[in-house]
Amino acid sequence: MQPVRQKEHLTQRVARSTRRLALVALLAAVLGAGCAGEHGHGREAPPRPAPDRPQAYRAAAARSLAGYAERQRVRVAAARKWGLARVPLVAPEPPSVKPRIRTRQGFSAGPGLPPVFTTVPTEEKVVFLTIDDGAEKDPRLLRMMSDLGIPYSAFLSDYLVRGNYGYFRKMRDRGVALHNHTLHHPYLPALSYAAQRREICGQQEIIEKRYGKRPHLFRPPYGNYDRDTLRAAGSCGVKAVPLWAAEAFPDRMEWREADRDLHPGDIILTHFRGPNEWEGSMPDMIRHVMRVVTERGYAVARLEDYV
Length: 307
Fold this sequence. Notes:
This protein is of the alpha/beta class. It has helices at residues 2-34, 55-81, 139-148, 158-161, 165-173, 193-211, 227-235, 282-295; strands at 116-117, 126-133, 153-156, 177-180, 241-242, 246-248, 253-255, 267-271, 299-301. The strands form two sheets. Strands 2, 3, 4, 6, 7, 8 and 9 form a seven-stranded mixed beta sheet that branches. A two-stranded parallel sheet has the order 1-5.
């Protein structure tokens, strides 16, 4: 009977090896389809099965590997659906402690005032995507960003949003943070302190009323502000004033820095715009900015995880 038992053990080992090879083949197929956008920093690392562990551990590792392969397959399919040549890189886990934000050198602020900055201090190859005002309300943007899993933050002006609060409620329900961009998008330094406070605090109250949460970030229209702007913002509960290091359009990027490149922690600005004002749509803009970000080895992270 010994040869029979040996044959049975051999058969079982072959079956287990076949299952492992099938999982590896599945993973290789998925990664091969999306490899152009999956190499380098920011990718999700596949789990490694440990063959010397007990059977329960090996089974759990196999399930984890299969789950990873399925997530990769979904990401590759989403990139193809929305016309991205490369799969967006996956951002690393957010920091357990948020970095200390300081006002950028050369930008005015003062003790006790919200810091003004264009880049978040981090060594990770991540950037942050922010979209301003609220003029264009393209439903394809909501679907595209959800399918691709790209995080972004919206800075809203009420005079453009009030015609369709529901659009931005859907955005909020998808996990997008809604922040303050004033009621009417004025040039703030031309206004008195009281008038600036009405613009900023009024928008704080509307966002809280309509969407259930008072924003802690504020972006002044056109990026223009003075000391009264920061005083007013701080009095309304604003903790920080993110500006931007680069601006995205459907056909180009505009850069603040002389090297015309991305840097860890850079904030990217774009706008809710459509073909009436742009040579392209919101999805066209996302395709362009993601091509630039991914080709340069960066992932898009969630701004609120860092600020």
